[in-house]
């Protein structure tokens, strides 16, 4: 069962998105099992199976720690029930069943923790790949800007050496305008304070000066 947070919101199991509600539900199940089993139930297997529900819920909600806590609570409730509702203290078979609840909580919680760790690693790898692609793209754009600046300045230098000052000034103005256009395009897509853009902007400023 999934539960969204509205249009466009994240979708996931309700107990993962609302851990406090999941803990409250688990506590209600524990209370319900205790209320029913102490005065009425005599079947140890039924009690053990009923206690498995909140243990599993806590394990999938909180991971290994939740599973262990849920299993410990289940064992405690079973122990109290065994003393109150039975004459043999629950028997070795009953204690073996409820001990299995502790193992269930640990294993299920461990699996949930491992799954979360795998998801985090996958997200980190995706983010690293995205940043690498972004850096490569900006590097290529910076090379393009640098080439245009160098070519424009070189053309202006040749014009000055040839005595054509007006053409040199025009070439410099066009070079600066093109550099500013390219840098502005980068600034729209980049994070503020980018080192790459700062260096590129400094180059354009030097040319303009």
How much helix is in the residues? over 70%
- Mean pLDDT equals 75
- What is the H/E order? EEHHHHHHH
Report low-confidence residues grouped into runs of 5 or more.
4-10, 192-198
Shape: rod-shaped
Total number of strands: 2
| Structural class assignment | mainly alpha
| Largest beta sheet: strand ordering | 1-2
Percent of residues in beta strands? under 5%
Biggest sheet details: 2 strands, antiparallel
Count the DSSP helices: 7
Task: State the end-to-end CA separation.
Answer: 64 Å
Rg, rounded, reads 34 Å
Number of domains: 2
Commentary on this structure:
- With 209 residues, this protein is mostly helical.
- The protein folds into two domains: 2-123, no CATH class; 133-208.
- Helix content is 83%, strand content 3%.
- It contains seven helices and two strands; from the N terminus they run ββααααααα.
- It has helices at residues 14-17, 19-37, 44-62, 64-85, 91-161, 165-189, 195-208; strands at 2-4, 11-13.
- A two-stranded antiparallel ribbon has the order 1-2.
- β1 (2-4) and β2 form a beta hairpin.
- α3 packs parallel to α5.
- The longest helix is centred in the middle third of the chain and has 71 residues, at 91-161.
- The relative contact order is 0.07.
- The model is unreliable at 4-10 and 192-198 (pLDDT under 50).
Entry summary:
Helix 2 (19-37) runs antiparallel to helix 3 (44-62) and helix 4 runs antiparallel to helix 5. The chain is mainly alpha-helical and 209 residues long. Helices cover 83% and strands 3% of the residues.
């Amino acid at each position: 069962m999934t539960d969204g947070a509205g249009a466009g919101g994240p979708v996931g199991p309700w107990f993962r998105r609302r851990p406090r509600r999941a803990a409250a539900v688990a506590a209600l199940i524990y209370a319900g099992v205790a209320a029913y089993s102490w005065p009425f139930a005599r079947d140890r297997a039924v009690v053990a199976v009923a206690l498995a529900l909140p243990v599993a819920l806590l394990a999938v909600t909180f991971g290994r720690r939740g599973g262990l806590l849920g299993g410990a609570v289940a064992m405690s409730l079973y122990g109290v029930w065994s003393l109150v509702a039975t004459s043999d203290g629950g028997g070795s078979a009953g204690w073996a069943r409820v001990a299995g609840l502790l193992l269930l909580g640990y294993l299920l919680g461990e699996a949930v923790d491992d799954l979360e760790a795998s998801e985090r690693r996958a997200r980190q790898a995706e983010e690293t790949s995205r940043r690498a692609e972004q850096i490569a793209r900006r590097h290529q754009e910076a090379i393009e800007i640098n080439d245009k600046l160098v070519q424009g300045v070189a053309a202006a230098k040749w014009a000055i050496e040839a005595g054509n000052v007006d053409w040199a000034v025009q070439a410099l103005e066009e070079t600066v305008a093109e550099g500013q256009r390219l840098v502005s395009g980068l600034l729209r897509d980049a994070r503020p304070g980018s080192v790459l853009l700062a260096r590129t902007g400094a180059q354009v400023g030097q040319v303009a000066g």
